[in-house]
Design a protein that fits this description.
Blueprint (H helix, E strand, L loop, with lengths): L8 H15 L2 H27 L4 E8 L4 E7 L1 H20 L9 H19 L3 H22 L4 H29 L7 H8 L4 H18 L8 H8 L2 H25 L1 H26 L5 H21 L4 H32 L10 H4 L1 H14 L6 H17 L4 H22 L13 H19 L2 H4 L1
């Protein structure tokens, strides 16, 4: 059907944005890219309506015959959640996140376009080789986003990021190659691999599973492979932080969902131990938040807390509620964490400082930033009518089937996370002492914050759009 050919349209939009960013000056390239990303949001929603009407959206094209490597794309409500979130975060980061002179450059437009192509292709991929290709494109674009556009210690943070992610890529590629040599079918199609791998004995399934899981644990990241994330965020530009935590960390989380689909027997047999690691990761990160003075590092550690909860849900994902809870939590986290990093970047731009022990009285000098931060705290806490509430509720009800009383532990980590952020709000935002602003903010910053808040509420109220 012709509707299936729409699957390639977002990649074409990304390529147009990329070439436009290369050929046009900064302002014209930014305007063109913003229009194309907005169009992609509408396109993904339109495709979702078709999918929910019973249409199966798939597109495959063979370009290597042996082994069979196909340019294969598929669209469903799980992928729709991540693709819509990606388009919204990319759009807002482009129009609102360019707070410094370094970010107002053609390089910024080019790298964001390249990253959008990577994220869109990865979340649509129905072939492991194609998944790996888009994975690496995303890592390279994020490396240069940190290396070229970040702050003082950006090069150190970028090299550290790349070291960890190269390990992840090598591990992912090794796992894919092991799968290929284990099986008698010459294909990397995910649906074909699922049926073929189930015929293997469990001990043979475990080896490629471990290699691929290791890659995703680094990317999410999960303790003890988390050390790169706080440094990357503290040195990345506002746009880089929004895309890194909002979208790039979902590469690993989405990959973990694919592991559940491809290796269901391993998840059933050993998922409990991965769930325990996710609990430890969330609790450990929540404790580390207590020590942070830099508001961006505190937000970065909250990402580790939330991704631990998402992985915890995935390991219980033979339960439908937990499965869709993890998907919705990815959507919710991508939106709220992008908003939190946009607020943090705006604070750094306006007050030239990010130290929560020095900042004070922000509500008296910019109440919009203060209330946006408070809304972000409530969203992370899972306030009703927000998208986080839907994700947390489904995860709690779904995970309790497998983990029983242990289900409360990752939510204790979430409680600590929220308590620290509320303390930061009380200390730095509503104290009587006023910290004098130095710069004025572009009105587009507040526009971006509004778009993200509206999206959080939209998917909190109309969750059936995805969950149908």
């Amino acid at each position: 059907m012709m509707i299936n050919y729409l699957l390639i349209s977002p990649l074409i939009l990304g390529l147009i944005a990329l070439f436009g960013s290369i050929l046009l000056d900064y302002k014209k390239g930014k305007a063109l890219s913003a229009m194309l990303y907005a169009l992609s949001i509408m396109l993904f929603i339109y495709m979702l309506l078709y999918y929910n009407s019973g249409f199966n959206l798939e597109l495959s094209y063979s370009y290597i015959n042996l082994p069979i490597i196909q340019f294969s794309l598929v669209y469903n409500n799980v992928r729709a959640a991540l693709l819509i979130m990606t388009s919204i975060v990319t759009f807002v980061s482009l129009i609102s996140g360019d707070l410094t002179e370094e970010e107002r450059s053609k390089a910024s437009n080019i790298l964001i376009s390249l990253f959008f192509i990577s994220a869109t292709g990865l979340f649509l991929s129905n072939n492991l080789v194609l998944f790996f290709i888009f994975w690496d494109i995303g890592l390279v674009s994020m490396f240069f986003m940190i290396y070229l556009l970040g702050s003082v210690n950006r090069r150190m943070a970028a090299r550290k990021f790349m070291f960890y992610e190269i390990l992840a890529s090598l591990s992912l590629l090794t796992g894919i190659m092991i799968i290929y040599f284990y099986l008698n079918i010459a294909t990397f199609q995910i649906n074909a691999l699922t049926s073929a791998i189930s015929s293997l004995p469990l001990y043979k399934q475990i080896i490629p599973f471990i290699f691929i899981l290791f890659a995703f644990l680094i990317n999410m990241p999960i303790f003890p492979f988390h050390n790169w994330l706080p440094d990357a965020h503290s040195e990345a530009s506002t746009q880089g932080s929004m895309l890194l935590s909002g979208v790039l960390t979902k590469y690993g989380a989405f990959g973990a969902l694919l592991l559940y689909i491809i290796f269901p027997d391993v998840i059933v047999s050993y998922g409990f131990y991965i769930g325990l690691l996710a609990i430890i990761s969330s609790i450990y990160a929540s404790i580390l938040i207590l020590r942070q003075r830099d508001i961006k590092r505190a937000i970065a550690y909250s990402t580790i807390v939330e991704l631990g909860i998402i992985l915890f849900a995935i390991t219980a994902a033979y339960n439908t509620l937990a499965f869709y809870g993890s998907v919705y939590a990815m959507l919710a986290h991508g939106l709220v964490i992008a908003m939190m990093f946009l607020v943090a970047g705006a604070i750094r731009m306006k007050y030239q400082i990010r130290d929560v022990n020095i900042l004070s009285g922000i509500v008296h000098t910019d109440n919009r930033l203060a209330y946006a931060f408070l809304f972000g705290v409530f969203t992370i806490a899972g306030m009703p009518l927000t998208s986080s509430f839907i994700g947390d509720l489904l995860i709690a009800f779904g995970s309790v089937v497998r983990y029983k009383a242990l289900t409360v532990l990752p939510f204790i980590a979430l409680f600590i996370n929220v308590a620290v952020f509320y303390y930061i709000y009380q200390k730095s935002f509503v104290s009587r002492k006023k910290y004098k602003p130095i710069n004025k903010l572009d009105p587009l910053v507040y526009t971006g914050i509004f778009i993200l808040i509206a999206s959080i509420l939209l998917f909190g109220v109309f969750s059936y759009i995805i969950l149908e």
